[in-house]
Amino acid sequence: MNLRTSQSGSVLLEALIAILIFSIGILALVGMQATAINNVADAKYRADASFLADQIIGVMWASRVASGVNFIPDANFACSPCTLANGNAATRAWVGANGVAGALPAGTGTVAVSGTQVTVTVTWQPPQATAPHRHSAVSYIN
């Protein structure tokens, strides 16, 4: 009988310790899930920014091909930052609700033309980030 009384409650203590260890593991999984969701959202924003930069460069290439001559930069293509009030019809459509502003949080775009070099910069502010993110693409259109 003496042996039995010295071990009373040990199963309950072991169960509580097991529940504590299991709970810490579950909390770690929830934290990793939150980090993974943030990383996926950031990757989506980066992919969208790359697509948008390539999109306006593609429009410039298409205008060069349609004109049948070498690309001569039009001052209307350049805009910094691009808004619905500056640039040409292509850059105004690119920056609007179906473009940079609609695809990225606080998204803005800039198109700089220097000779045949075109530099497109897309900037956005992810909700959890403290600093804005930026993607730049440089293309030579000739």
CA(first)-CA(last) distance? 96 Å
How many strands appear in the DSSP assignment? 3
Counting helices, strands and paired strands, the structural category is alpha+beta
Rg from alpha-carbon coordinates: 28 Å
Transmembrane segments: 12-32
Keywords: Membrane, Transmembrane, Transmembrane helix
Protein name: Type IV pilus modification protein PilV
Organism: Ferriphaselus amnicola
Put the structure in a nutshell.
The chain is 52% helix and 16% strand. With 142 residues, the protein is an alpha+beta fold. It has one domain.
Write a structural description:
With 142 residues, the protein is of the alpha+beta class. It has one domain (10-140). It is 52% helix and 16% strand. A 3-stranded antiparallel sheet has the order 1-2-3, covered by helices on one side. The longest helix has 58 residues, at 10-67. It is rod-shaped and about 95 Å long. The mean pLDDT is 86. This is Type IV pilus modification protein PilV. Keywords: Membrane, Transmembrane, Transmembrane helix. The chain crosses the membrane at residues 12-32.
Keywords:
single chain; 3 strands
Lay out the secondary structure.
Elements (H helix, E strand, L loop, with lengths): L1 H5 L3 H58 L21 H7 L4 H4 L4 E7 L2 E8 L8 E8 L2
Antiparallel strand pairs: 1-2, 2-3
